[in-house]
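**Protein record**
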Amino acid sequence: MWRDALAVGGKDLRIEMRSRVTATQIAPYALLVLVLFGVAFDSNHQILSQAAPGLFWVAVLLSCLLAVGRSYAIEAADGASDGLRVAGVDPAGVFLGKAAAIAVELLLLEAVLGAGMVVLFDVRLHDPALLVLSSVAATLAIASAGTVYGMVALGLRAKETLLPLLLLPVMAPVVLAVTQAWMSALGISQAAGWHWLGLLAGFAALYVTFGVLAFGTLMEDA
C-alpha cells in the first residue's frame, strides 16, 4: 500500500511540476478570490480583519475543487484509471497517493495565500503552532474528502457540477473548525483554539480511514 501510495503521489506531483497548473491557474484564482473579498469589505476594515480566517479557508476550499478536478482529469485521460485497476495497484495506495499529492499542492497554495492575507487583511499572528497544526489537519481532511468524492463524481455525468454539490456540505464542519482555530491563533477571538484543533484531527482521521477502506469499492463503481 505504501509503495503504491508513493508511486501514485509522486506521479501526480511530477505531472503538476511539469504542467504548473497550480502555480499558473489555481494560485492566481485563489488570490483573486481573496482580492474580491477585500474589495467587498473594504468599507469596514474591522469586519474584514475579523472575517479573514473564514475568507481564507473558503478560498482554499474553492481551490481544492479545482485541484481535485485536475487530479481526476489526469486519471480519465487515455483510460489511466482503468490501467491502475488492471495493474493491480492497491486502491488504498491510490487513495493515499492522490490525497497526499493534493494536500501538498494545497499546503503550498496556503503559504502563498497566507502572505496575501497579511497584505490585504492586515492580520497579526499570536500562536504560530496552533496556526500551522490546524492548517495541516484541515488540509488533510479537505484533501482526503476531496479525493473520495472526486472518485464518486468520476463515475457520474456532469461531474464538474456534481463535485461541489457533494463536497461542499461535507466540508462545512471542517471549515467552521479551522476558522475558529485560526481566529484563536490570530488573536481575533478568545475561543479555545486547541480544542478546535482536536476536532480537526478527528475529521482528518475519519476521512483518511474512510478513504482507505472504501476507495477500492469506489474505483470499481467508477
Summary: Residues 2-221 form one domain. The chain has one domain: 2-221.
